[in-house]
């Protein structure tokens, strides 16, 4: 369970990241569901993909027969907090990238967010979504699922470059309970590391 020190009551610390995963060293204690395709990790500052040097991804061409992959986080301590903000920076590229959704698990499974990729991205554009999490049911963990269509001539990639968990409400909230799509926000531009 993630137990990093709880932020103090200073308002400037309301959205202090308890967990910030950029996949630059490892999978951040997440694991792949062994019954599905696996997210693979890429981390190479000299060879960025879609402008990011670190990410996990599933590629339609190497996923085999599996139509989905799932990452599972560890549990997050809720302390006495009533809400938290979970965010994802992700990319859905090509005709084979069908859906990405997030399930919150505590006393039950709750689908909190989905992007059904209604407009096929042929350029590789990163998007960001933030979900305000209700912590009243205790310590949550999250399942992040990417769904793909491996039938030819489909192609594409679903990638995740960053996940965060913070205490307090999100500055904006994309929670859609897996019913509808929101207008997703583009993440702030990050400098692309230059080759050394």
Total separate domains: 1
Just give the CATH class. Mainly Beta
- The helicity comes to under 10%
Helix count, DSSP H or I runs of 4 or more residues: 0
CATH architecture: Sandwich
How would you classify the helix and strand content by structural class?
mainly beta
From the spread of the alpha carbons, the general shape counts as globular
Amount of beta strand: 35-45%
Low-confidence region ranges: 1-7, 9-13, 188-196
Distance between the amino and carboxyl termini: 37 Å
Order of secondary-structure elements? EEEEEEEEEEE
Could you tell me the CATH topology label.
Jelly Rolls
Mean pLDDT: 84
Number of strands: 11
Question: What's the short story on this structure?
Answer:
The protein is mainly beta. 0% of the residues lie in helices and 39% in strands.
């Amino acid at each position: 369970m993630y137990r990093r020190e709880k932020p103090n009551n200073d308002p400037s610390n309301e959205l202090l990241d308890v967990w910030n995963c950029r996949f630059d060293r490892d999978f951040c204690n997440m694991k792949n569901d062994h019954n599905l395709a696996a997210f693979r990790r890429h981390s190479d500052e000299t060879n960025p993909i879609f402008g990011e040097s670190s990410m996990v991804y599933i590629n339609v061409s190497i996923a085999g027969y599996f139509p989905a992959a799932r990452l599972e986080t560890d549990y997050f301590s809720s302390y006495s907090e009533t809400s938290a903000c979970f965010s994802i920076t992700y990319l859905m590229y090509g005709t084979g990238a069908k859906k990405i959704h997030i399930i919150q698990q505590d006393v039950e499974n709750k689908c909190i967010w989905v992007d059904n990729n209604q407009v096929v991205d042929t350029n590789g554009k990163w998007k960001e979504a933030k979900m305000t999490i209700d912590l009243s049911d205790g310590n949550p963990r999250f399942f992040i699922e990417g769904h793909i269509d491996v039938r030819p001539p489909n192609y594409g990639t679903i990638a995740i470059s960053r996940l965060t968990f913070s205490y307090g409400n999100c500055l904006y909230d994309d929670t859609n309970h897996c019913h509808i799509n929101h207008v997703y926000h583009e993440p702030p531009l990050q400098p692309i590391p230059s080759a050394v």
